[in-house]
C-alpha cells in the first residue's frame, strides 16, 4: 500500500521525536512492503519565523491532500509574548479546525514495566489502568465567542461562551460507542449537567445515542466526581466521552497517572480517514536539541495512524509489541528512568524499537 503522510516536526524536541517515529515507520514499510511518502510542512514557532504566521495556508493544503498527518510538538519561550492568534498554539487549534478533526482520542494505559512510575498506590493500580478518553475537539469554550471589554461599571471583563449543538454531541458520542464496542463495551459520559445548559443538552443527546448501542453499558458522571474517580478507582473506566474543556483537563490527569507524558500518544479524527497523530506532551524546550527526549509517545502515535487512518492493524500491533519488548528489556529515556534500568538517548530508543519490528 502507498500512503502520503504530511509531517509537521514543529519546535523544541519535535524534530527529534518525529525522526524516530519515521525511522520506525520506515521499518514497518520495509517489513510489510508498503510505501510511506513524507511531505514536510511548517507549523508553530518555526512557521512564525519562516513565514510570519503559525499556520501557513500551504500547510493546510498539503495536509488536506495527504492520507494522514504526523505531528511532533509546537511552542517555546521564544514565541510566548505574541498575541493569541500569533502564537504557535494557534497553529494547533487552526489545523484541527481546518481538517475538521472533531474527535480527540487519548488512550491512557499503565504498562507493566513502568508500573513503578505511576504515582498511585499499588492497591489502586493492581486492578488495571487501561482507558481511552474521547474528547470533543472543535466546540465548547475554546471555539465559542470570546470577548474582552469594559463593563458598565468600568471593570475590565472577559468571557468565553461554551456552546454545543446537537449534531456535534451526537457525532462525538458515536465515536465513543463505536470504540467501546472494540474494547470492553463501557462508556462513561462526563458533563456538568447540574449547572450548565450545554451539559444538559450533552446529557439528552448522549442518552439518545446510547439507545442505538444496547450492548454497551452507559452511565453519566459529573466532571468534578470524574476528576476524583480517576485517581480513586481508574479501573472502573473503559471509554470516557466528554466535551473539549473537561476533556483537556481530564486527559492530562489520566496521562499523569500512567507515569510519564513521554509515553502517551493521541489521534484526532474527523468524518473520513484523514487524522492528525501527535504525542500528548509539548515541545519540552528544557531538553530540546540534547538527544534526551522520549520518542515513544510519537512512535505510538504513528502506530495509531496505521490503525485508524490506514487500517493496518497488524503493523500497528507490531509497533506496540516492539515498544513493550524494548521497555521490558530495561531501556529507558531519562523521563522514565529508574534504578537498575539502562539509560538510552532518543535516537537509541528509536533504533531499538525499529530493530524489534
Ligand atoms: P511539555 O509537555 O513540553 O513539558 C513538560 C515536562 O515534561 C518538561 O519537563 C519536559 O522536559 C517533559 N517532557 C515532555 N515531553 C517529554 C518527552 N517526550 N521526553 C522527555 N521529557 C518530556 O509542557 P510545557 O513545558 O508546559 O510546554 C512547553 C511548550 O510546549 C510550551 O510552549 C507549550 O505551549 C507547548 N505545548 C505544545 C503542545 C503541542 O504541541 N501539542 C502541547 C502542550 C504544550
Please give a quick description of this structure.
This protein has 357 residues and is an alpha/beta fold.
List the helices and strands and how they pair.
Elements lengths: L1 E9 L3 H19 L2 E6 L4 H7 L5 H8 L3 E6 L14 H11 L4 E7 L12 H4 L4 E7 L9 E5 L5 E5 L5 H16 L4 E6 L5 H15 L5 E6 H10 L6 E4 L1 H13 L8 E5 L5 E5 L16 H13 L4 H16 L2 E2 L9 E2 L2 H11 L1
Parallel strand pairs: 1-2, 1-3, 3-12, 5-10, 8-9, 8-10, 13-14
Antiparallel strand pairs: 4-5, 4-11, 6-7, 11-12
The protein binds nicotinamide-adenine-dinucleotide (NAD).
Index terms:
10-stranded mixed beta sheet; binds nicotinamide-adenine-dinucleotide; 12 helices; alpha/beta; about 350 residues; single chain; 14 strands; two-stranded antiparallel ribbon
| pLDDT averaged over residues | 94
Numbering strands along the chain, what is their spatial order in the largest sheet? 2-1-3-12-11-4-5-10-8-9
Bound chemical compounds: nicotinamide-adenine-dinucleotide
Radius of gyration: 20 Å
Q: Distance between the terminal alpha carbons, to the nearest Å? A: 18 Å
Q: What is the approximate shape? A: globular
- Percent range for β-strand residues: 15-25%
Number of strands: 14
Please report the number of helical segments.
12
Structural class: alpha/beta
As a percent range, the share of helical residues equals 40-55%
**Major sheet: size, sense and barrel closure?**
10 strands, mixed
Low-confidence regions: none
SSE pattern: EHEHHEHEHEEEHEHEHEHEEHHEEH
